[in-house]
């Protein structure tokens, strides 16, 4: 089975083989002897061709957070079966923008109302978290179709705040 | 032990700075009193103090900003002084006044000095009068949109909007063109109102190749002002400092003397007592007064490491009427890295609970922190969790030491500023010493190629072993039984989360 890893715009395909009595990983024309040992709660010792990497690996839905030598990388990971399942599920909902809370915070200002026309870059909501005010802007021109928040509301990260439909043709 | 200058100190703060003050107080034989909000019942400061007093709900405006509750707590437990740390009430003149009236020593400057220096407009006037150079700008808050537009054009874009009552990078907006000016002014005012309850902002020129260099002073009640050299704080994101070092590589001995003189002059002119920092903007060999922070600064440990002093001890001593020490000969180079709970890409705060923790150690490493395993990072307070400080013989060795220590540090549960700090420290720009406040925008933020390789491989191997175990939980292949590691992880996690 193939394993697909994605970090930023880098995508790689890994294969694994245990047949030689040792776990062998390959990616394109490169391959390595790999030994991953769990040494504690989420702490791993990864030895790749004899080189040691003390890692922390947190597996979450669809991605893993890997920490090694001060780096922290969020890596999307899926195997062949999962990829097929995801492809099937991603029936797209065309055009509508959803302005989401970029972090947990408090809505300190809602600058639009339903039916209002907005331009790309226009601030629609101002969110405050940890004493910083952050304007959230429309990504493209459109018409506000629903406002799902109000001033003073505490929202979770990723919460939908405003929905914007594409502008009518012409 | 010599006689302590105070019997019992109430520390009107939380987080790493409450721990920092507590440590010195303990060494001096001063009993410590912590105050805590609902969210901080389990916080280190509330567990490690000699006495702890609950002061209200989690929101700072209901607890750590409530001078009345804090003063009542001080009276209740018989504290003879209050150390405000930084942030919260540290630069609140009314609180300093209230302490004095209540007969509790405020370990910091007088209400008059706080009022004068805390108001950026007043501070510029005072600096001007003490012949400390200023950046071109307006000395007053301007409310009239048309006048604001006209004045900004006169000063020349880019311009900066700063909260009159601000500090710590809060309430600052840079404007590059006229059409963004009014919106930025509105946002700056809103931020200022929310953060400081005062929405005045003022306008000034945004200088080129700016470096943020500041001078640490401690002044006593007898007119002595000691300057402990400078700190370079130009590695910033969102106008907030991330990495600081001392000394600054572009400050010559001659310039240092002029900056320290200016800082001492200003402190004397306003009758300052206590620890304070005069922030300068350094631009192409010149320096301009930015503001004075009338409190202990976050980055004070680099000064302590380099000069071998304890600034908190000096604060207690001068507050008790003792004479401030003279400045010792500095040694080597010190660097501080702020460990913030934030996304290294967007710099947005990252919330969660700290599930795993590896602290750095070894030669020349100091960690000022409030971290513990199981700690919740909540949206109520600042995102700074710890400060990693290193000291070494010279700058190149301090950089290598900082990188080494950062690579030892691990936090699981929230994202941190560690990768960004590493990128900065490893960059040629930082190593050259010839950088300015735009350094983080200029450096490559990607991890080194080797780490990307390892990270992607680790994620893939982890996933492979997991799916393999799910498919055949008890499979053996001649290599002996494999540990069903993800199950163990899940179990440990669950156990870890079980309330005690």
What's the Cα radius of gyration of chain A?
Answer: 22 Å
Q: Tell me which oligomeric state these chains represent.
A: heterodimer
Classified in CATH, the superfamily of the largest domain in chain B is ATP-grasp fold, B domain
How many individual domains of chain A?
A: 2
What is the domain total for the residues of chain B? 4
> What composes the largest sheet of chain A?
8 strands, antiparallel, barrel
Average pLDDT of chain A works out at 87
Strand order of the largest sheet of chain A: 1-2-3-4-5-6-7-8
Number of helices of chain A: 1
Number of helices of chain B: 17
Strand order of the largest sheet of chain B: 13-12-9-10-11-14-19-17
Helix content of chain A: under 10%
Shape of chain A: elongated
Strand content of chain A: over 45%
Terminal CA distance of chain A reads: 49 Å
State the CATH topology of the largest domain in chain B: D-amino Acid Aminotransferase, Chain A, domain 1
Give the radius of gyration of chain B: 24 Å
CATH architecture of the largest domain in chain A: 2-Layer Sandwich
Shape of chain B: globular
Descriptive overview:
The complex is a heterodimer of chains A (170) and B (500). By secondary structure, chain A is mainly beta. Chain A is built from one helix and 16 strands. Chain A has two domains: 2-78, Glycoprotein, Type 4 Pilin; 92-165, RNA polymerase II/Efflux pump adaptor protein, barrel-sandwich hybrid domain (OB fold (Dihydrolipoamide Acetyltransferase, E2P)), CATH 2.40.50. Chain B is of the alpha+beta class and 500 residues long. Chain B has four domains: 8-107, Rossmann fold, CATH 3.40.50; 136-205, Dna Ligase, domain 1 (2-Layer Sandwich); 211-442, D-amino Acid Aminotransferase, Chain A, domain 1 (2-Layer Sandwich), CATH 3.30.470.20; 451-496, no CATH class. Helix content of chain B is 37%, strand content 24%. Chain B has 17 helices and 20 strands. In chain B, a hairpin with a 5-residue loop joins strand 9 and strand 10 (225-237). In chain B, helix 4 packs antiparallel against helix 5 (111-118), helix 5 crosses helix 6 and helix 12 runs antiparallel to helix 13 (418-426).
